[in-house]
Amino acid sequence: MNFDDNTARPPSRRAFVLGSASILGLAVSGCTTATDDSAGDTEGRFSNYASMYGPLPSEKFPIPGIDLDKVPSKFRRRSVSYRTNEKPGTIIVDTSSHYLYLVEPGGKAMRYGVGLGRAGFAWSGRARVAWKRPWPTWTPPDEMIARRPELRKYSADNGGMQPGLNNPLGARALYIFEGNKDTLYRVHGTPEYWTIGKSVSSGCVRMINQDVIDLYKRVRSNAEILVV
């Protein structure tokens, strides 16, 4: 399912313009000087992809393993050398490369492949992870319900779509706020893992469920996130 990832309305054109302007300011200030050296992937423990992306039977909703043939190796989770001015614990989403980086000490980062929908390109800037939710409920925005009346059963009034393997938000979701204002931007899992590394029709930043679970464990609440 390619559904938008929000419990509120998609960002407006004004929000897009303002977000683009804000990230331009960040780039000029030198805050986005991160560079990646993929050859720095020296962490042998991340080479066993069959185990990394295998089944997770202990989850609330047991997650099956993925078909690795459907995810190019460059978009699989790995530790890489990474030069940045951002402090450890910061999330950096590089929309141009379809990568998400979690900055680590010592010039390293954990790198994940991501899929990006329209909402994933509609906001950029610096914010924080306000909430972390395991197995979140998904509620389509009113505009989507107007286009697709069959989704009305998942409206806010009807309690949304309950968590599960087919929920568009997947196994975990990070909710991104600027101060106390919801940006409507989400980092979340997806049952459609074959869309990783691609631009898709809907959603924000989608990750393989096994990857978003790994990220969820590593990221602290109120961690900074930079979308470029």
Characterization of this structure:
This protein has 228 residues and is an alpha+beta fold. The protein has five helices and eleven strands, in the order αβαβββββαβαβββαβ. The chain has helices at residues 13-29, 49-52, 118-121, 142-147, 209-218, and strands at residues 35-37, 78-83, 91-94, 99-104, 108-113, 115-116, 125-134, 172-178, 181-190, 205-208, 224-227. The chain has an eleven-stranded mixed sheet. Strand 3 (91-94) and strand 4 (99-104) form a beta hairpin. The radius of gyration is 17 Å and the shape is globular. The relative contact order is 0.25. The model is unreliable at 1-33 and 38-45 (pLDDT under 50).
- Proportion of helical residues: 10-25%
Q: Which overall shape is indicated by the principal axes computed on the Cα atoms?
A: globular
Low-confidence stretches: 1-33, 38-45
- Oligomerization category of the chains in this entry: single chain
Order of helices and strands: HEHEEEEEHEHEEEHE
**Can you count the beta strands?**
11
Number of helices: 5
Structural classification = alpha+beta
Q: Compute the CA-based radius of gyration.
A: 17 Å
Distance between the termini: 26 Å
Strand order of the largest sheet: 1-2-5-4-3-11-7-8-9-10-6
Mean pLDDT: 83
